[in-house]
Amino acid sequence: MSWKTTTVSANERWTRRFTLALTIGTGGAAWIGATAWVLHQQRRLNDIGPTDPCPVLVLGCRPGPALDARVAAAVELYHRGLADRLIISGRGECRAGAEAALRWGVPGAAVTQETDARNTWENLSKSARFLPDDRVWIATDRWHLPRALWFAGRLGLEAYPRPVDRAQRRPPVAFAREGMSVLYGLVRQGRDAVTG
Predict the structure, then answer these.
(1) pLDDT at res. 3
(2) 109-117, long-range: CB within 8 Å, 24+ apart, which pairs?
(3) pLDDT confidence of 170, banded at 50, 70, 90?
(4) In the chain, where are the structural domains located?
């Protein structure tokens, strides 16, 4: 989720404001709790997957080392026979991810690009149409997987984690940001449940 989106709906503005108010109103306790949940959940991840190959969804991020690491993890699953296709999701980054997958030996027929998603929820919801059933690997950073798996469950997907462990310049910042994103996701889910 980007907090710097240029065009934002009234619902998204309300969700952002409420998330901020909740964080401030609880003295940061809501954010600390969400961040603690991320830390706890990411330690419990493993590579247990389906018995038959299924697609692997690469959650988008800016082209660069993070996207390359996510695509490399997906390509590894493909070459090991655990994934039968790659779905690269994200508005601007899917092309760079697909090009990397092709360079690393995945045939073009096994790479699908989802070009509309702007955040984790949309990565999953917009990519679901490419799945032959509800099973999917999710390749993303370890700190990002708890939220991605939670969202996949909300969408009725049977998701398998493919954690990407990579050196980061500022891991505490990544976990802190992810805590805020989890809190934002909770507020959005609540808003959607109320407004239908």
Answers:
(1) 45
(2) 110/78, 110/84, 110/85, 110/86, 111/85, 111/86, 112/55, 112/85, 112/86, 112/87, 112/88, 113/87, 113/88, 114/87, 114/88, 114/89, 114/90, 115/90, 115/91, 116/91, 117/60, 117/89, 117/90, 117/91
(3) low
(4) 10-42+171-195, 46-164
Tokens encoding 134: 């509800």
Query: What is the 3-class SS of the chain, one letter each residue?
Result: CCCCCCCCCHHHHHHHHHHHHHHHHCCCHHHHHHHHHHHHHHHCCCCCCCCCCEEEEEECCCCCHHHHHHHHHHHHHHHCCCEEEEEEECCCCHHHHHHHHHHCCCCHHHEEEECCCCCHHHHHHHHHHHCCCCEEEEEEECCCHHHHHHHHHHCCCEEEEEEECCCCCCHHHHHHHHHHHHHHHHHHHHHHHHHC
Instruction: With beta carbons less than 8 A apart as the criterion, state whether 113 and 88 touch.
Output: yes
Residue 189: how many other CB atoms lie within 10 Å = 15
CATH assignment of 46-164?
Answer: 3.40.50.620
Global confidence as pTM: 0.75
Average pLDDT over residues 138-144: 89
> Six-digit token pair at 74?
């997906």
